[in-house]
């Protein structure tokens, strides 16, 4: 299939900072790109949903701060999770 993500909500923080959060799904692939809509991502945190144990944890394959709004993640095929991205 493909990698997918859904932005659940976006909130304005102090000044020009924003937080964007949602879910991701790596159905039959080992990662993909979350397009946050931010101009710059200062931090992105991934969570795992599903089974109580996880052999390999999904990670952001980036160095932060990231000068774009797209975050590449690497995950085990079939994993699902959540994300929180903070930036401008």
User: What share of residues is helical?
Assistant: under 10%
- Unreliable segments of 5+ consecutive residues: none
- In terms of quaternary structure, what is this? single chain
Provide a count of the helices. Answer: 0
End-to-end CA span:
32 Å
Order of SSEs: EEEEEEE
- Please identify the structural class as seen in this structure: mainly beta
How large a portion of the residues is in β-strands, by DSSP E? over 45%
**How is the biggest beta sheet arranged?**
4 strands, antiparallel
Rg calculated over all Cα atoms: 13 Å
Count the beta strands. 7
What general form does the structure show? Answer: elongated
Strand order of the largest sheet: 1-2-7-4
Mean pLDDT: 91
Description:
With 88 residues, the chain is an all-beta fold. The chain has no helices and 7 strands. The strands form 2 sheets. A 4-stranded antiparallel β-sheet has the order 1-2-7-4, with no helix packed on it. The protein has a 3-stranded antiparallel β-sheet with strand order 3-6-5, with no helix packed on it. A hairpin with a 5-residue loop joins strand 1 and strand 2. The radius of gyration is 13 Å and the shape is elongated. The N and C termini lie far apart (32 Å). The model has no long low-confidence stretch (mean pLDDT 91).
